[in-house]
C-alpha cells in the first residue's frame, strides 16, 4: 500500500470516529458492516491475532491454512460474536473459542475497510499499536 493514498493525520479515523459511535448509525463510507460465519474444523489451528486499537478489536494477523483464513482479514474490526458485543481482547477470544467448541460455529460481525485509504489507515494503526494477542489455542480436540 503506498503512503500517498493515506489521509493526513488529522483526517485519520478507524471505521467510526468517537462522534459516530455504533449507536448513531453513521459510518465512514470507506468501511462496510458485514457478518461472517466461522465454522469449527477439527484439526485446524485458529490462526488469529487481534489487538486493541482506540477501544476497538482489530484483526492484526491471519495465518495461512487456518480456521479463519479466507474469512477474516487483517484490518477487520470485530464488533460482535453471535450478537454479543466485544470491546476487549479477552472477551473476544473467550467468545470465539467457546462458541466454536459448544456450537461448532461463530457468527462474527465486523467492520471491514473497503477502500485503499481505509486499509492504509488501519495498517498504520496496527503498526503503531503492535502488541497483538495471538490466539494460539488449537481447536484440535
UniProtKB/TrEMBL annotation:
Superkingdom field: Eukaryota
Residue intervals of the PDZ domain: 37-88
InterPro entries named in the record: PDZ, PDZ_sf, T15H9.4-like
Basic and acidic residues: bias regions: 1-15
Location of the region described as Disordered in the Swiss-Prot/TrEMBL record: 1-28
A Pfam family that the UniProt record links to this protein: PDZ_2
Matches recorded under PANTHER family: PDZ DOMAIN-CONTAINING PROTEIN (PTHR31327:SF6), SPERM MEIOSIS PDZ DOMAIN CONTAINING PROTEINS-RELATED (PTHR31327)
Protein name: PDZ domain-containing protein
Amino acid at each position: 500500500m503506498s503512503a500517498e493514498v493515506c489521509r493526513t493525520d488529522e483526517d485519520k479515523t478507524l471505521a467510526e470516529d468517537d462522534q459516530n459511535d455504533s449507536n448513531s448509525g453513521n459510518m465512514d463510507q470507506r468501511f462496510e458492516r458485514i457478518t461472517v460465519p466461522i465454522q469449527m474444523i477439527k484439526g485446524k489451528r485458529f490462526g488469529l491475532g487481534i489487538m486493541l486499537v482506540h477501544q476497538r478489536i482489530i484483526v492484526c494477523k491471519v495465518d495461512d491454512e487456518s480456521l479463519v483464513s479466507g474469512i477474516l482479514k487483517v484490518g477487520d474490526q470485530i464488533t460482535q460474536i453471535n450478537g454479543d458485543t466485544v470491546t476487549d481482547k479477552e472477551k473476544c477470544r473467550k467468545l470465539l473459542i467457546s462458541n466454536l467448541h459448544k456450537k461448532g460455529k461463530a457468527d462474527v460481525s465486523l467492520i471491514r475497510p473497503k477502500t485503499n485509504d481505509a486499509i492504509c489507515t488501519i495498517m498504520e494503526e496496527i503498526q503503531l499499536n503492535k502488541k497483538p494477542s495471538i490466539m494460539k489455542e488449537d481447536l484440535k480436540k
